[in-house]
Amino acid sequence: MGNIWSLKNALDNLKIKYQLVSDPEKINDFSHIILPGVGSAREAYNRLEKSGFVESIKEAVLEKERKILGICVGMQLMGSSTEEDGGSKGIGFFKNKVLKLKENVGIKLPHVGFNNVQTNESVLFDGLKQKDFYFVHSYAMESTSGDYEAGITDYKQKFVSVVERENIFGTQFHPEISQKNGLILLDNFFKKC
């Protein structure tokens, strides 16, 4: 369910030491966690729950204060629920629901390509003047005007594209394939968060 190879290439480029984790008990061994994802948020949640990762992630982030970055479906999993594929609950770091983007506004789905992120102040964007990133998705977090909604993107409808609260971060876009801007954002996550 994750875009592992592109992410590995980006982290290698940044010379960030990392480890892929398949044992939920090992999450607490790390200061920073990335939860990548492509595909169905419902399927991703079900797999994480069955393998024991949902509880391990909650413990690592909420109790041990490990930093986490959710990417695309990884960010969607941080919401309260998703309506994708019949729906499921989410990890619940944020109260936002994940809804399908509306097709009736003259847009194509999935939303694919570079788009701008309008941001509030966020450590993730330190050193970035222009905030264009690569998106591939048909579902996104609804905006509830929460103070943790650090970025909004307009694709003929507005949706939350960045969340940030204390040690919890998420991007609807894929920084690992967003060229220089994405590399800066990933570097900021590891060095400034």
UniProtKB/TrEMBL annotation:
Active site residues according to the UniProt entry: C72, H174, E176
Catalytic activity: L-glutamine + H2O = L-glutamate + NH4(+); 5-[(5-phospho-1-deoxy-D-ribulos-1-ylimino)methylamino]-1-(5-phospho-beta-D-ribosyl)imidazole-4-carboxamide + L-glutamine = D-erythro-1-(imidazol-4-yl)glycerol 3-phosphate + 5-amino-1-(5-phospho-beta-D-ribosyl)imidazole-4-carboxamide + L-glutamate + H(+)
GO BP terms in the entry: L-histidine biosynthetic process
Keyword annotations from UniProtKB, A to Z: Amino-acid biosynthesis, Glutamine amidotransferase, Histidine biosynthesis, Hydrolase, Lyase
Domain Glutamine amidotransferase: 4-192
Organism annotation: SAR86 cluster bacterium
Protein's UniProt name: Imidazole glycerol phosphate synthase subunit HisH
InterPro entries per UniProt: Class_I_gatase-like, GATASE, Imidazole-glycPsynth_HisH
This protein's record includes keyword Chaperone: no
